[in-house]
């Protein structure tokens, strides 16, 4: 279980998160939603240790990890795929996967095969430099690289942004399998309401750096929640 409690985050003098709390129970898929600029990415980065909160706590499986550096969070089973993530653009798809494997603590080559089983469409692209991939292919490579670390908790920041519809379906299928079959716990930032409705168990909506609503996914049908998501 991931638990974020009363987190405040500032960029310089600007306070971006105001006492945000959320829970991601083990084995669940929680969708973090809200309009542009409300603080979703800031919350994921804080969870991953890329930003330090001015106040509040982050706990993983009951242990306080607020002060833990990012690489140690990775060792504890957390992985983060940033929004619009570009892998090493000059390296081929294969090299990107290998470099990631070499950086893991387990170094088991079977992890690459496991990641490719989730995204088999990457196989014919092995020799292509990552910089020449389409938006959807880059996103698949980014998630595959995160999977090589063998995470238990995956933080995904808008994996469908800028991705063509057919590839959105592939990403949705992959996330569903990872969650339902492989049992991965997922915190997903997603603006696309229908996708959230299909994938998530529960959701949290941020508005201006505060939790405006949180609940089971069925409540996403409520007019009061939809108003918080419409531009
Ligand atoms: N490095 C930074 N320095 C200063 N302000 C920042 C920085 N990064 C983000 N912000 C500001 O913090 C607020 C929250 O940004 P954040 O990226 O967390 O929002 P978001 O909900 O993820 O938005 P989006 O959906 O557009 O990615 C915004 O007002 C943004 O302009």
TrEMBL record:
Domain ABC transporter span(s) in chain numbering: 2-231
CDD domains from the UniProt entry: ABC_TM1139_LivF_branched
SMART domains per the UniProt record, alphabetical: AAA
Gene Ontology terms for molecular function: ATP binding; ATP hydrolysis activity; branched-chain amino acid transmembrane transporter activity
Alphabetic keyword roster: Amino-acid transport, ATP-binding, Nucleotide-binding, Transport
The keyword Transport belongs to this UniProt entry's keyword annotation: yes
Pfam families linked to this entry: ABC_tran
InterPro entries xref list: AAA+_ATPase, ABC_transporter-like_ATP-bd, ABC_transptr_urea_ATP-bd_UrtE, BCAA_Transport_ATP-bd_LivF, P-loop_NTPase
Gene Ontology biological process: L-amino acid transport
Similarity comment: family membership: Belongs to the ABC transporter superfamily.
PANTHER family tied to this protein: HIGH-AFFINITY BRANCHED-CHAIN AMINO ACID TRANSPORT ATP-BINDING PROTEIN, HIGH-AFFINITY BRANCHED-CHAIN AMINO ACID TRANSPORT ATP-BINDING PROTEIN LIVF
Protein name as annotated: ABC transporter ATP-binding protein
Organism: Saccharothrix coeruleofusca
Organismal lineage: Bacteria, Bacillati, Actinomycetota, Actinomycetes, Pseudonocardiales
């Amino acid at each position: 279980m991931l638990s974020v409690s009363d987190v405040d985050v500032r960029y310089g003098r600007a306070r971006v998160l105001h006492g945000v709390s959320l829970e991601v129970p083990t084995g669940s898929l929680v969708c973090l939603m809200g309009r542009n600029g409300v603080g979703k990415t800031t919350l994921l980065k804080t969870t991953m240790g890329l930003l330090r909160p001015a106040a509040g706590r982050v706990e993983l499986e009951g242990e306080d990890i607020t002060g833990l550096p990012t690489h140690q969070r990775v060792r504890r089973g957390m992985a983060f795929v940033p929004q619009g993530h570009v892998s090493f653009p000059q390296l081929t798809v294969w090299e990107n996967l290998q470099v990631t494997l070499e950086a893991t603590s387990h170094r088991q080559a079977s992890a690459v095969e496991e990641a490719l089983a989730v995204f088999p469409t990457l196989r014919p692209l092995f020799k292509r430099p990552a910089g020449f991939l389409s938006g959807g292919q880059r996103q698949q490579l980014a998630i595959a690289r995160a999977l090589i670390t063998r995470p238990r908790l995956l933080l995904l920041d808008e994996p469908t942004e800028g991705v063509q519809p057919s590839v959105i379906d592939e990403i949705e299928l992959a996330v569903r399998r990872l969650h339902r079959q492989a049992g991965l716990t997922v915190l997903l930032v997603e603006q696309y309401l229908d996708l959230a409705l299909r994938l998530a168990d529960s959701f949290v909506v941020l508005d201006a750096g505060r939790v405006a609503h949180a609940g089971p996914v069925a409540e996403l049908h409520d007019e009061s929640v939809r108003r918080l998501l419409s531009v």
